[in-house]
Amino acid sequence: MQLQLGATPGTLLDGFSSWNASAEDAFMVWNSNLANLRFAVVRDSTAPRAEGNRINNVLFNTDVYGDAWGANVLAVTLTWSSGTNTTETDVLFNSLLAWNSYRGGLRTTGTGAAMYDFHRVALHEFGHVLGLDHPDQFGQTVTAIMNSRITSLDALAADDISGAQSIYGIAAGAVAPPTITSQPISRSVTAGQAAAFTVTASGSAPLTYQWLKNSAGIANATSATLSFASAALTDAGIYTVNVTNNAGSVTSSPATLTVTAPVAPTPPVTTTPPAPTTPTGPVVTAPAAVAPTITTQPRAQVANAGATASFPVVASGTAPLSYQWRKNNVPLTGAVNATLTLTGLQSADAGTYTVFVSNAAGSVTSAGAALTVNLPPGISAPPADQTVLLGGRASFSVAATGTGPLSYQWRKNSTDLPNATNATLTLDPAKLSDAGGYSVVVTNAVSSAASASAQLTVIGPPTIAAAPQPQTISNGDRVVLTVTATSGVTASYQWLKDGIEIPGATGATLSIDAARPTDNAAYAVRITNAAGSITSPTAALTVKFSRLTNLSTRGFVPAGGALTPGFYIRGGEPKSLLVRGVGPTLSLFGVGTALGATNLEVVAQESAAVVASNTAWRGTPTLTTVFAKVGAFPLAADSKDAAVQASLPPRSYTVRITPGDAAMSGITLAEIYDVDTLVGSASQLVNLSTLGFVGSGDNALTAGFAISGNAPKRLLIRAIGPGLAPFGVANALPDPQLGLVPLGGSEPIATNDDWPDLVNVRAAFSAAGAFTLPAGSKDAALVITLEPGAYTVVVSGVNGSATGNALVEIYDLDP
User: Fold this and answer.
1) Under 8 Å between Cβ of 515 and 477
2) Is-contact 704 569, C-beta < 8 A?
3) How many CB atoms lie within 10 A of CB 149?
């Protein structure tokens, strides 16, 4: 069966989430009772909807395939056959009517219109699919879901189940309900004669029997036969029997027992001759008996349940008069007085009462007096808890019993709601302030009844109780961003980095195990539920980092000599570097003894292999672009300066700058630039060292470096002269001094002459991997922490007069 019933306005009253789910349950109810047939369903089917297409469609529709719905028709089942084979069965429900799915008595909408129970109508129509008809249209009087009129019956009855099982067999484990195969037959006997009623029933054992007289159970009358050894006049009445087993019960047709009084024999007639007449005076004759007549009839009454009702009758006629009260023409036991009094009235007392008045001359029956018993209201189906989205539709309904008219008053948190006086309370659109407990008081002329409270929960978009907070951490630290939100239903999370969704970041916490400069950003989280979404304020994450991104050395190169700065790359991947040997262009900056031409080689220290080289860079466009990227000053295209870009794996290297002509001498500048993106590289420059000649004036040995990033950097800077003796360096500068000058400055911000033999200084030597210096040597050393920027280290002899070879070193002490 192709279930195509569409969406519901919300959860149905009996808890089903959709029409299709309610229909599927109805199919399963039938399946549980049948052996040789099973319904199968396709929920939310998209199959074509049409008559005669050999598809079993189940749907709501505004018409019956083009024909208008008949008056009071709730649904139809259409069947197509070919020979003895059924090729298609469609079930259509009238979408012009108000529907829900519920149990119990029939309900109405808030406007008083009928609201039909889809589930019981589905059970009925699916019975037609099985081939069942309307029993009430075939002369049967039975309780059945298959009767042609909808009633308060909301489940399969024994007659429904037995009818289907007679076609398809009894499902394994199912119990066949009782069926009466032979009804009891009415009897008419004379008082004192024997009488009996017998019923024959089939169904799964054990079967139990309960006989009833005038709808009231008879004590100990629990067998298939009800016997009267000697019928009395008071035994007259209407008899039925309920037959029951674990699958249900069935009630027989009524059978009437009529008991008549025996006719007295007529005495023989004897003729006696008249006696002699003796005059004795006047003769007095007894008056004739007068039959009863009713002078004051019992009157109809309306009384509330639990009250007392009295029916007095006034009759005339020859005494003694006898009385026998009847209800609905059935004699009432013990009701033999002129007034019938009924106490503690119940619904069963409602009916028409008459009295039979008799004497020796005759009898008379009074007019009927109707007794109407007003029943107090009762809650048969209380309102149910609901959860709706903000702006959605919430509807509470109540089903109540009792004598009408019934009035309704809805309450919220025990306070009356104005104008909420229908059987259904609708809140549309629902607001957050509508959340609370809802109940209804149902009132009639007898009393009032209050329903249990039903809770309305209104779900709004999430709210943020604690937003993620800004954080500042060091490079490589672990960072955790957390949000605390409230949501009445399940919510989802999506973290954002600078407004862009982070793949996989869908929890209340965002963790970065080892933060890098690339993680610097503004973070926020978007929280979503079925009612909407909210985005937190941004939280700035600052990852503090700094790197050496430019190393440079300026020194004098004598004829036949070289300037040989060294550097070290630390990390796990190759680094792209720009290496330059600038000579001729220095003259543009006022250097009078600039080297006229330069040769450049980059040598791997471990293998002594030349890994990159250049002579006269020749204005290469690619290099021109790189110069601009790293901020290096431009070189003339035809200059005899040298430049090369190379990707070098992590290790130690030496840059060798020699004159373009062996006879040349002069000042040259060696530069090493980090070309990689600052925040994206996994390797870095950590050391610069240059062995060069320290002269006087412009011939001082200088080393430059640049720190990039957002955090200070701790460095070890050394100028070594005497400490070179163990390495065989001749003409070492006897007493070097160093000064540290920031870019654009004219005065040093730090100086040293004769290094301080302190614990922290020696610890810095060890951490940097630098060779030790003898205690008390004239070498210079500084341990200093510097803010990002460009700096120059100037190495000269004390008093500016001494000259010689010196080694200048710059070490990155940060991890």
Assistant:
1) yes
2) no
3) 7
- Within 8 A by CB and 6+ apart from 389, the residues are 430, 458, 459, 460, 530, 531
Sole residue written with tokens 């019981």: 120
* H helical segments located in 698-790: 759-768
Per-residue model confidence as pLDDT tens digits over 478-499: 999 999 999 878 999 999 999 9
CB 542 within 8 A of CB 473: yes
CA–CA dist 555, 803 (Å, integer): 13
CA distances 478 to 501, 683, 701, 815, Å, are 21, 20, 43, 16
Residue type, 759: V
Peptide bond into 462 cis (omega under 30): no
Q: Express each pLDDT in 119-170 by its tens digit.
A: 999 999 999 999 999 998 888 888 899 999 999 899 999 889 989 998 998 8
3-state secondary structure 613-680: EEECCCCCHHHHHHHHHHCCCCCCCCCCCEEEEEEECCCEEEEEEEECCCCCCEEEEEEEEECCCCCC
Q: Which two tokens stand for residue 400?
A: 């109540």
CB contact at 8 A, 583 and 636: no
Count Cα atoms within 13 angstroms, Cβ side, for 530. Answer: 11
* Cα–Cα nearest to 781, from 807, 801, 795, 761: 761
Alpha-carbon span 330 to 490, nearest angstrom? 65
Q: Which pairing describes strands 652-659 and 701-709: parallel, antiparallel, or unpaired? A: unpaired
pTM of the model: 0.48
Gap between the Cα atoms of 55 and 806, Å rounded: 98
In order, the DSSP letters of 531-596 are TEEEEPPPEEEEEE-EEEEEEEEEEEE-TT--BEEEEEEEESS-EEEEEEEE-GGGGGGT-TTB-S
CB atoms within 10 A of CB 272: 5
In whole angstroms, give the CA distance from residue 88 to residue 80.
5
Say whether pLDDT at 281 is over 80. Answer: no
